[in-house]
Amino acid sequence: MIFQYSPFFLPLFFSAVITAFLTYIGVRNRSSPVAWPFAILMAAVTLWTAAYAVQLIFSDLPTTLLLTTVEYIGIVIVPVAWLLVVLYYTGRKHYVTGRNVALLLIVPVTVVTLVATNSQHNLFYSAIIPRTVDGSVLWVFFRGPLFWLNAAYAYILLMASLILLASRYSGAPEIYRRQILILGIAACIPVLVNLLYLSFIDPVPGLDLTPFTFTVVGVIIAVGLFRYQLFLTLPVAYPQVFSAMNDGIIVADPQNRIVDLNPAARQIAGSADDAIGRSLAIYFPQLSRFVESNGSDVDMSGEVMIPGNGSARYYDVVYQHFRVAGQDPSGHLFILSDITDRRLALDALASAHKKLSLLSSVTRHDTMNKVTGLMVYLDLIKNQSNPDMNAIYLQKIDEIARMIQDEIVFTRDYQEMGVKSPAWQDLSACIARAKSQVDTGPIRVIEECAGVELYADPLLIKVIINLLENAARHGGNRLDTVRFAYRQDGDSLIVTCEDNGVGIAGEEKSRLFSRGFGRHTGLGLFLSREILNTTGVAIQENGQPGTGARFEITVPSGMFRFSGRE
Questions:
Q1: 245-338 domain in CATH 3.30.450.20?
Q2: Which of 59, 96, 107, 502, by CA, is between 20 and 30 Å from 432?
Q3: 3-state DSSP assignment of residue 338
Q4: H-run or E-run covering 126
Q5: Residue 196: CB partners within 8 Å, gap ≥ 6?
Q6: Domain assignments of the chain as residue spans, ordered by start
Q7: In angstroms, rounded to a whole number, what is the distance separating the alpha carbons of residues 125 and 140?
Q8: Which fold has domain 9-236?
Q9: Per CATH, the architecture of 422-566 is what?
Q10: How far is it, in rounded angstroms, from Cα 77 to Cα 44?
């Protein structure tokens, strides 16, 4: 080893100190997703600069070649680390996998090996000759064919990084634009100087000025860190939020072609894998009316119904002209919020309130008739003293009083139908709860409805209770089994409740669900029908007399779903 004085040592040493400090900053802020690739980038720059500084204070060729190999470890890592920084910064960290990083490092590892073994093949450097500058020896490396392949690879990675940064600049908030500008300047300064070093107009032949620029780069990045929160606030939230939002977002150009849409919008469309570049009317024809009816730059909102997989869904649509900063409206933006459950609940509540108004007038009329009957029998008791007749009148009064009591209980249950909004309910759980509230005695209740959920009034359990009570009361001595099951019929779901009792006579079927019909209160099946009808669910009896009753509950599309349980 032969030491020499070099006027370039101190500037390079100072540059290495700055980049080493930035490496420390990256390690200290490792909670930031960009911290570790930034720390690797600064560590590689530090190694490059420090090795080159030490190389210049030795004049002998063996030491120069050894330090050149060390220097190249940093040189080849810089473009790879810079690409990783940009990928993390622009929200594309899912591309940074172990496999992809390994592929990126194939060329750098090969280059370091070629540099270390250059004396055996001279393919990386074809010749090395000494040159004197200000009394110091500079070894001038003449580049071989493999050197240019390495340079091309490095510049490809750098250009890809700059393109990714530029793609995030347009439309970004001001603070992110300044961050991107800082990163772009920090990358371009050493790149431009390195291009001079590689060209035929190298200012100082044999001296690589690229490491000297890292002092300026360090100052620029320091300004970004402390003034514009570089790497602490990242613009990666935009693509992440766009993808994660539950609302569907669709962007179309002035020709109504789909420019972009998030996963929620793809799900709404059903199948939109090739939607980009296609007409909005193909996948979302319901949205065309917003564009057609709005010739001015005015935001709109409205409600649309979009057919789904087996059921229609309702969406609240916010429509805006899609704007690019400083330009005229250049497209259309749609935000679709699913309001199906709210729409169904409002429709169900409106139906329940309508029925409650009808119930109020009917019940008032019926109760007044029964009260009139009570007063008649009370007058008869007052006006005659026959004990036998009074006993009959008292029995009638008792019957009427019980009927009034039953109607009051019925009105309480009926009123509850309009108090709470419909909701998704597990059918198996409803049947289990109903079984616990009905004395079925020796009757077996078989349930085969696992995984089925119905969108129904919270009083759905009352329907199950009424069906079990009717079976227990009217099934006869032969009844020993009640079975609940389901099947799909086209877009509908059929839930069946059948027993092996005596069944229901044909002449009674047409009046079975009428209010007041029956041998008990005549209100149970009527109430059951009203509860189900709140969400458009129908019930009918189609069993065979003598073989058992069979109630079929028909649930329309959109009012049932499967929870996935076996």
A1: yes
A2: 502
A3: strand
A4: strand 125-133
A5: 202, 203, 209
A6: 9-236, 245-338, 340-420, 422-566
A7: 10
A8: Rhopdopsin 7-helix transmembrane proteins (1.20.1070)
A9: 2-Layer Sandwich (3.30)
A10: 6
Q: What is the pLDDT of residues 274-310, one digit of tens each?
A: 777 788 888 888 887 787 765 555 667 888 887 765 5
Rounded-to-integer distance, Cα 476 and Cα 482, Å: 13
DSSP element (H, E) containing 497: strand 492-499
DSSP string, 301-327: EEEEEEE-SSSEEEEEEEEEE---TTS
d(Cα 389, Cα 395) in Å, to the nearest integer?
10
Q: What is the pTM of this model?
A: 0.50
What gap in Å lies between CA 236 and CA 168, rounded to an integer? 9
> Residues near 494 by Cβ (< 8 Å), separated by ≥ 6?
486, 487, 488, 552, 553, 554, 555
What does the pLDDT look like over 375-428, one tens digit per residue?
A: 888 888 888 778 888 888 888 888 778 777 766 765 665 555 555 677 888 999
Taking the C-alpha atoms of residue 411 and residue 419, their distance in angstroms, rounded to an integer, is 13
476: left (phi > 0), else alpha (psi -120 to 50), else beta? left
Q: What is the Cα–Cα distance from 434 to 443, expressed in whole angstroms?
A: 14
